[in-house]
Amino acid sequence: MEVQLRRVRVTPDFSPEALIVIAGAFDAAWKELRADIGANGHAIAIARNDLAGIVLGLARVGPIEHVRLKDKAVIGYRVMNGDVEQQLAACGDAAALFAKAPRGEG
Predict the structure, then answer these.
(1) Which of these, 54, 39, 50, 46, lies nearest to 3 by C-alpha position?
(2) Domain range list for the chain
(3) What 3 state SS string does the chain have?
(4) How many CA atoms lie within 13 A of 56 on its CB side?
(5) Which candidate, 81, 27, 72, 36, places its Cα nearest to that of 54?
(6) Is the peptide bond before 63 cis (omega within 30 degrees of 0)?
(7) Which of 95, 46, 54 is nearest to 71 (CA)?
(8) What is the CB-side half-sphere exposure of residue 5 using CA atoms within 13 A?
(9) 6 vs 67, 69, 71, CA distance in Å?
(10) How does pLDDT run across 23-71, given as a tens digit for each residue?
């Protein structure tokens, strides 16, 4: 079975300083997730590719902060891959944000 990997193209959207933070956040998130992936080379490649997409997506919407990118990327990866506990935590966060959102006058 051959696995096709997406190539992630880095654009000038990020400053050199931001790229250092993004790469560091990716490495830290990968370090936390690595044990969950297993030893299969294809699974590792796919997981790293998915994680890179998550980190870059988070960086695009900002802010570019190491801890934020790393923590949100780990949660995002786990939610994307069916971790029920993380899904519930993410739903709780979303529900809390929704509850704080201003409501229109009816």
Answers:
(1) 46
(2) 16-100
(3) CCCCCCCCCCCCCCCHHHHHHHHHHHHHHHHHHHHHHCCCHHHHHHHHHHHHHHHHHHHHHCCCCHHHHHHHHHHHHHHHCCCHHHHHHHHHHHHHHHHHCCCCCC
(4) 14
(5) 72
(6) yes
(7) 54
(8) 16
(9) 26, 21, 23
(10) 999 999 999 999 888 888 888 999 999 999 999 999 999 899 999 999 9
Tens of pLDDT, residue by residue over 79-92, are 888 766 666 666 66
Phi, psi angle pair for 4, to nearest 5°: -95, 125
Nearest to 72 by CA among 33, 15, 42: 33
Name the residue with tokens 């971790």.
83
